[in-house]
Design brief:
Blueprint lengths: L2 E9 L6 E6 L2 E5 L8 H14 L2 E6 L5 E7 L1
């Protein structure tokens, strides 16, 4: 199992859920969920897991819109 880290900029409260690649290892994730009570973080992880087909976890930036996420493929 290999793991890689990516930088993720999050836009909570978006009109649609979407993952966009901005550069190498840098992504924009738009989620409809609000940033309250960690709801946006949960949706970000779900979207990234579907996008990459592997397990995702936030390793830095839990309360920030810029996060470092580890993806296990």
């Amino acid at each position: 199992m290999t793991a890689s880290r990516i930088t993720v900029d999050v836009k909570p409260g978006a009109k649609e859920d979407r993952v966009e690649r901005l550069g190498e290892d840098w992504y924009m994730v738009r989620v409809r969920a609000p940033r309250r009570k960690g709801k946006a973080n949960v949706e970000v992880l779900k979207l990234l897991q579907r996008h990459f087909g592997g397990r995702a976890r936030i390793v830095h930036g839990f309360k920030s819109t810029r996060k470092i996420v580890e993806i296990e493929e």
